[in-house]
Q: What sequence folds into this?
């Protein structure tokens, strides 16, 4: 079992940047495809981005493509989400999640049921 902790959230103006990190403990993080999701009150959790175990495969939601970049450092057991050109609609609680079953990121990575482990989330607020 892997334990996930997100960090790096905060308040930023529209057009600004934030870098979220997901730190893993309890198991080798390179055994998991890892994804980022976000959720706002009253809405379903929304897929943002995913990265395969080795970092060679990535998959993004259309809404963040060309603005967000997911990366991983397996030596440090971390997955990062660099968020640029932030918009007010990016405001949400951001969660990282780990999928132990699939080695690569792809369309199935965009579904929450692909993941077995979830962090507690970090708040991102983008002001207009």
A:
């Amino acid at each position: 079992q892997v334990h996930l902790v997100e960090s790096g959230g905060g308040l930023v103006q529209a057009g600004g940047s934030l870098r979220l990190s997901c730190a893993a403990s309890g198991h080798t993080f390179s055994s998991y495809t890892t994804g980022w999701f976000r959720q706002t009150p009253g809405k379903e959790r929304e897929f943002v981005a995913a990265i395969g175990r080795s970092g060679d495969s990535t998959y993004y939601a259309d809404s963040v493509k060309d603005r967000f970049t997911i990366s991983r450092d397996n030596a440090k057991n971390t997955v990062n989400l660099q968020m640029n050109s932030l918009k007010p609609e990016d405001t949400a609680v951001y969660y990282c999640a780990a999928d132990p079953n699939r080695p690569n990121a792809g369309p199935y990575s965009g579904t929450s049921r692909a993941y077995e482990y979830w962090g507690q989330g970090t708040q991102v607020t983008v002001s207009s």
Summary: The chain has a mean pLDDT of 96. The chain has no helices and eleven strands. The CA atoms of residues 23 and 76 lie 8 Å apart.
